[in-house]
Design goal:
HTH-type_TetR-like_transc_reg, DNA-binding transcription factor activity, Transcriptional regulator, TetR family, mainly alpha, HTH_TetR, Tetracycline Repressor, domain 2
Length: about 240
């Protein structure tokens, strides 16, 4: 009778097991962050409590602190994750929509992609507005990751303004100043939408902010072509 063979050793079993555990742990953290995002959006950072977040996520307070060392760390991680997701979304849209020769319609379509991301993630938007920080300026005491994200976003906007100015779309001026002014305009309009109960349709909010953009930054001949005679709204649908 032939000797039985030893069982085959699966050399990749341990790494595969670790990958599965890591994937489950990441899903667990994402679940907690989603629950926390809603609490922070409703209550603001100062009024939010870790106990309420744990209850909303369906975990114990001890488990919550095993995943995140404190409220500040949890809050920052949510914003870093969402900010990164948004900038990646904008970068992908830029690859799709921005082509030479550059036209204002391409830039407005890119702006629509950015604004739609914010409008479709209202808890993230409300978190951004709740903390009272001006978007045109970096956080008062940013982490390294937060500062890098801020600089990346501002650099993307400067590039669009530089390109648009070189192509005769925008009035001459500092791309840095234009980028910061645009952020301030968008924050004001979106804050008004949130304060009004987020009732206005997304398309209406986007068109309003696009009209602000055209009035403020485009050369007069381009603004006249795109706006209604009174300059109050876009005269064309941007697609």
């Amino acid at each position: 009778m032939p000797a039985s063979r030893p069982p085959a050793i699966r050399k990749n079993a341990a790494p595969a097991g670790r990958e599965l555990r890591d994937a489950r742990a990441e899903l667990y953290r994402q679940h907690i962050m989603a629950a926390a995002e809603k609490i922070f959006a409703e209550e603001g950072f100062a009024q939010s409590r870790m106990q309420a977040i744990a209850q909303a996520a369906g975990v114990s307070l001890g488990t919550l602190y095993q995943q995140f060392e404190g409220k500040d760390a949890l809050y920052r991680e949510i914003l870093i994750a969402r900010d990164t997701e948004m900038l990646d979304h904008i970068a992908a849209a830029a690859q799709t929509h921005l082509r030479s020769p550059l036209r204002i319609e391409q830039i407005l379509t890119l702006m629509e992609s950015h604004l739609r991301f914010l409008l479709e993630h209202p808890d993230y938007l409300r978190m951004q507005l709740q903390d009272g920080r001006a978007w045109y300026h970096s956080a008062a005491r940013p982490s390294v990751a937060e500062q890098r994200i801020w600089e990346r976003g501002l650099a993307m906007m400067r590039q669009v303004f530089d390109w648009g100015t070189a192509n005769g779309v925008f009035v001459p001026g500092s791309a840095e100043d234009h980028a910061r002014l645009l952020l301030a305009q968008q924050q004001a309009r979106l804050a008004g939408w949130v304060a009004d109960g987020m009732r206005a349709a997304h398309d209406a909010v986007i068109a309003l902010i696009q009209a602000d953009f055209v009035r403020c930054f485009c050369r007069p001949e381009i603004a006249r072509r795109l706006l209604t005679p009174d300059g109050a709204a876009l005269a064309i649908a941007v697609r």
